[in-house]
Batch of 3 targets.
Target 1
Amino acid sequence: MNIWQRSNIFKQLTNNIFMGILLDKTTDCPYINFTEDGFLEIEGRSITEDPFSFWQPLLEWVENYTHHAAPKTHVNIYLEYSNSSSNKYINELLRKLEDSHGKNTEVIVNWRFEEDDESVLQLGKDFESMLKLPFNFEELETEKERTRRIKIKNKKSGNEAIITARYWDAIVRNGHGEDYQILQEFS
């Protein structure tokens, strides 16, 4: 069973209604948050043994997105590590966005990397040299952000969960923040 089948939060294109994709990261697949509002986030490690099964639905989503893209598209990429197979798919994803850049959307790539991580910085520089997209590079202090957690409670069901601050940001950005109450923040 692949990540798409395991995920109960995967939203897909159904009945010609365009929706986003939200996947929490695993040990070998990155966090994904693609919204129809023009925010595409990839964060974490991408070392899946079956890159086609993971990345192909994302490429199809981006292809669909480019036909009715938001006026501005922000692509936030923050990789801890990515293997060569994943890099090929990320390149293809960015090329699809490059084709619509300046036509029906303005695309900005925000390439984030951990402080002193020269290999991930160089990967971003390589993509920048191959593409005609504007890139912003941001070095991040990561230890504090990686450990930040939030305890939330679903207002309807009463269920509680401790999630990452990044996952909470995605919930809010996707318009579901009102469904939850923040109970506690951990540093």
Target 2
Amino acid sequence: METKNGLGRWRKQAYEDLKFYQDICEIRRFIYQTTERFFKTHLRLVSQMRDAARSAKQNIREGYRKGSAGEFANGIRISLGSLEELSGDAEDCLEDKLITQSEFDKFSALFQSATYMANQYVKSLYKMDREGSWNVPQSALRKRNFK
């Protein structure tokens, strides 16, 4: 996804190149598509799963926008909590035969990839923060200057 900067041009946000963010976006799309067939019979479950998938993506965006390595890491950790919730729901759906083994395996592969890489990235964020090498997103700098 690209956002419009003050000059009317479009630019990509740095987090969008992170593999774990891309996996989380794929998880969100997968959950929306997969739950479509049992949307009417399990409305609350579908709503919770879709909310968790959406939250996993949006918390990364929010944490990044806050402009510090600590806030970004916190957003990623919150995102991981949402993914863990979603993982439990996926296990329940498999057990209740709402999804196939193949669908569960696809979700599990994305989940494992996203959580492993996100955890590694959080470690690197803390290291960058200690070293002072974290670059504050320009959008966060502009936001601070208006206060």
Target 3
Amino acid sequence: MATLVQAVRMALHYGETYLGVTDIFGEDVGPPLGGVFTATQGLKTAWNSPLDERGIIGTAMGIAYAGGRPVAEIQFCDYGFNTIDLLKVAGNQRWAGAGNYEMPIVLMTPSGSGIRGSLYHSHSFESWASRLAGWKIVMPSNALDAYGLMLSAIVDPNPVMVLLPKALLRVRGEQLIPGEPEDQQLLREMIDAPVKNRENWQPRWPPLKEYYVPIGRASLVRTGDDATIISYGRTLPLCVEAAKRVEETRGAKCDVIDLRSIFPYDWKAISKSVQKTGRVLIVNEDTEVTNFGEHLLRRVIDHHFYDLLVRPRLLAGQHVPGIGLNQNYEQNTVPQLPSILRELEALLDEPA
């Protein structure tokens, strides 16, 4: 099975081969490195940009205006904060032009904690991104979804931001990408560049097939009647594990919703689950003040006040300026399995 980052690479190859991607670019995106996380190794349209995030966004807009279909990368989402004004402009162009001008930009960037990146490589970006009207925002939690969401982002006429959870980039999926070989070692030999002597290396791409995950459609990962857990990205597998443990220890079964899309998001899936369970826990790792989960919490209360059995809960990251390099600081700054399990058990224990 492919890792999440291998899935992204294969999706980009499929995009440049079959879907009209004209440029894949960013800092160290081209040869020989192929991206700091190797997401762009071996791609024929990949090239290196200057170390200038604002220039990357501006260039992507220019390529799109000229009829191209670019995929741009900001090496870490932490360095996207100095591009907010340009992201705002990119998001309003189709609206300002009454839909007459497409803006088919894909902006991918690693987001979140999990690699002990300290202050400048551990931020989460989805709450900021959710405020950029005109953009579609997605965040996969597994390799197959990463492949399908990337293809959907490529063919979309609107700007789409693909947030890649840093901690999951090397995690293998549980389902095959359509067309990938079942042998993991064979896949590595085919598409992973050697650590040394890669100047003349060329990938041998498997016969990949199209697979689209619709933007705005959540995935119901586990089902149950006792509580609803809503998450995405790095914290989604932790929520699944927490749901498994409460089922084993107390027989409680939970819906676990992988949102997959931050905007537009699957309100129908959320609403249906909340009406069924009456108990809601939202989990993500962005800082807790003005967190995207707070918007979901407000909407759940507005629409389902009389369906709720107990108060809905949000578990998010600590509202601190950054995440420290020390592993204890990182572990205690953002939700981990023990804190998710505690919050879920408290939700289940609270009397109606």
